[in-house]
Amino acid sequence: MIYLILFILGLSAGSFINVVSLRYRPGEKVLSQRTIGGRSRCSHCGKTLSWYELVPLLSFIVQRGRCRSCGKQLSFQYPVVEMLAGLIFVFVPWRLLNFQFSILNFQLINQLSDYQLLTAVIWIIVFLLFLLLSVVDLRKFVIPDSVNFLLGFLGLVLFGLTYFFNEFDFYSSQFFGHYAFLLGFRENIFVNYFAGFLFGLLFFGAIIFLSRGKAMGLGDLKLAAALGILFGWPEALIIIALSFVLGAIISLSLMAIGRKTMKDMVPFGPFLVLGSSLVFFFGFPLFDAYFNFLNKII
Asked: pTM of the prediction?
C-alpha cells in the first residue's frame, strides 16, 4: 500500500532532520556543509556509524537504544522524530483527501488533480519544517531564519496555486469550512491571506515592543507571519489563540511538577506548530464542537 511506502520515506526524512537539528548551531544556515556533510558519529564515543546502525527506527530498536561501540544510552529524539516524520508523510495527504484513509492507494493517485498532488507535496514539506524548527527551538531556543523564510516562500507557492486553480471559496475555507465566513476577510484571496500575514506580524510585533523583547523573540514573529501566509485568515487567528492556550497549559503543568519555574525560558515555536497542527487536522471539528456547545448552553 502507498501509505506504507510513504511511512518508510518519512522515516528517512526524520533521520535527516535528526542529523540537521543535532548539528545546527545558532546563527548559521540550517543546510550548510557542516550540518549535512560528513559521516554520522556516536555523540558519546565519536565512533563513525556503519550503515546498519543508521537504519531509521529499526536500528534504535535492535540496539535497544544504545551505541553498539560504547553502550551509552542514545537520545530518544532519534526514534521520536523519525516516527513523527513517518506519520507526517501518511497523515498529511490523508487529511488533504478528507480523511479517506481506506482508499489511499495507487488507484487513488491517478484520480487526484494536479492541485491536490502539488499541495500535498508542499504541505508535507511544511510539516517537516515544522518538525525541524520545533526540535531546534527546544534544543537551542532559536528558530532559524532560513526555516521561517522557507515556510513563507512555501506559503506564497500555496497562495499562487490556490489562485491559479481557482480554489479559493468566498463562503468557506479549507480547514474551517463554512465557519470561516463568520470571521470575515473573504472578499478575495489577496485580502484573506494579507489579513492572516498582517495579523501575525502586528500581534507578535506588539508583544515584542511592549515587553521590550522579553516575552517573545523575532523568530516567533517571523514564524507567525509565515503561518499567516500559509493558512490565511481566520486560520492564523485561531492558530495563535490555540498556541497561547496550549503554551499556558503546558507551562503551568511543568511548573506544577517542578520541571520549570517562572524564570525559565520556554520556547514558543513548538506551541505555534501545535496550534497549526490542530487547525490543519481538526479545524472544522473544533469549530463544529464549539458552536454545538454554545447551542446547548444558550
From this structure: 0.92
